[in-house]
Amino acid sequence: MASTQFAILAVFTLLLPSIALATQHIVGDEQGWTTNFDYQAWAASKVFRVGDSLLFKYMVPNHNVIRANQTEFQQCIKSEANQALTSGNDIIDLKSPGKKWYICGVKEHSSNFKMKLAINVIDAWAPAPAPTAPAIHAPIYSG
């Protein structure tokens, strides 16, 4: 009996930190999923881990969310295989590491209005990537 309780406690202790550390990222923060927002800059300021989720908030029927592959993302192609999410409060669980791509499939929102998001998801326990510092250019003096 005591060994069973210890085993359950050990499993719970191992799983609790991953549950507690999961983050729900509201895409675009207070702006939400909308046109003319810099999602590349937004994503660059975040760390996405396995176990986290994305929340796409937008006005229905003005937008939607489509999971894309890299080619579909780059060319803003709506694939028939990828069904649009249309609730206005779409949650996508990040279940595996790697690159993930999302576009808006309404009209030309992805291509003309920057409604596209690319992220890199890392393992839950991986260290966060080092921030990239902006390039500093020294003044050039001519003598």
From TrEMBL:
Compartments where found: Membrane
Residues covered by the Phytocyanin domain: 23-123
Membrane topology, from the record: Single-pass type I membrane protein
UniProt KW keywords: Copper, Disulfide bond, Electron transport, Glycoprotein, Membrane, Metal-binding, Signal, Transmembrane, Transmembrane helix, Transport
Taxonomic superkingdom: Eukaryota
Principal localisation: membrane
Cross-referenced Pfam families: Cu_bind_like
UniProt GO molecular function: electron transfer activity; metal ion binding
InterPro entries cross-referenced by the UniProt entry: Cupredoxin (IPR008972), Phytocyanin-like (IPR039391), Phytocyanin_dom (IPR003245)
GO (cellular component) term, any one: plasma membrane
The protein's name in its UniProt record: Phytocyanin domain-containing protein
